[in-house]
Amino acid sequence: MTYRALDSHTVVDYLRSVEALDGVLERDSPLVAKEVGDGNLNLVFIVENPKNPKQSVVLKQALPYLRVAGESWPLTRERMRFESQALIKHNELAPGLAPQVYVYDDAMSLVVMENLSHLEVMRRPLVARKRFPHFADHISTFMARSLFFTSDLYLTGVAKKTLQAQFINPHLCEIQEKFVFTNPFMPSPENHWNPNVDDMVQAVRGNGALKIGLAEMKAKYMTCAQALIHSDLHTGSIMADADETKVIDPEFGFFGPMGFDVGAVLENLVLNYLSHFAHTPDPDVRADYQGYLLDLVRDCWNQFAQKFEALWIEHPDGDLMPASFWAYPGGAEAFAEFRARYMAELFRDTVGFGGSKMLRRMMGIVSVWDITSIADLEKRAIAERYAIRIGTRWVLERAQMRTIEDMISVVTEEVTNT
Fold first, then answer.
1. Of residues 236, 240, 245, the one with CA closest to residue 269
2. pLDDT tens, residue by residue, 63-102
3. Using CA atoms, how far apart are residues 219 and 37, in angstroms rounded to an integer?
4. Is 288 helix (H, G, I), strand (E, B) or coil?
5. Torsion angles phi and psi, residue 112, rounded to 5
6. Is 205 in contact with 191 (CB distance < 8 Å)?
7. Both 351 and 403 in a single domain?
8. Which of 13, 191, 237, 354 would be 249's cystine partner, CB 3.0–4.6 Å?
9. Pick from 114, 137, 159: which residue ends a domain?
10. Residue 297's beta-bridge partner residues?
11. Confidence band of 10 (pLDDT split at 50, 70, 90)
């Protein structure tokens, strides 16, 4: 089939032609479609059978350009292959924590998957101060399993490199390399920011130590192929309710540094924390919910680290250093020390990547709705100034950070002392 971009009418005709959806949709029924995509890259449709609301799917199709930038920024449609592969792998490694894939059509650059409309993308409910009692458990499980089981800690060298070859994703990596680590911190036409923080934006651009730190984090992003990372794992790529959590939109997936995913989750929770200085005027209500968010930050890291290391101890035969390498008197202690050093480095990466991503959200092409939804620019600037200071310190001080309490202390110090 020749590629063509679908619309809310032609998507129904397309789905009726797909035999693989038998049992998922009654293809002869009067299916109804609506385009719901508000992302930066793709078309997204929800298609339902009005006679049987349980029969519904999501169809996601790649456009041949970056949607947020328009046709002036061409982009390969192959990203839909990466997303489909990643979703299938995530379902294999972390069952129940990603949407089920029904169809992947390479020629049409689209995937048909489980409809998660009963869940909410986390950003808005977090602004509305909703609580997710299982989120820390679910997201830490997802990260621990998806990262560990695609790393050299578990796989043979051949198996890992064979899998890595399926996720060579240069065009979307280039987007992250430019829009996360480089362009926000120098003049670039797509950048935008609140004029009330212009002084801080210019200070960031002229901070040599900070820019060295950002360059170091970019170098690690480009060269450290530790595991299959989602590479866009923020609260806009997670859907949840009180009982379920699903990770979506892994089209940026490639083999990169684990801390990029973990740092993205923690950074987005902190950005939501900062947004409540405007969204929640009542100081007691605000303090209570901000305390909950910092508890989530703490629990996400602690549970991730515990689960990741437990998997390593349970499966110690990856090619990085198999169990037989440590089979000598004193080897168990040396193995424990190696794990501790590895986890300490992963934590420092988490801090540095979290800081880099927090900064770019304040002065690059893409911000976060938690903060851009603050209509009053003066009030919005309060959150943004905190974010710039916190992000700067996370990047500059990452080498000295040992525990999640160190990371959280930077947040509380900045909002208390300024």
1. 236
2. 887 665 556 667 778 889 999 999 999 999 999 999 999 9
3. 32
4. helix
5. -110, 125
6. no
7. yes
8. 237
9. 114
10. none
11. very high
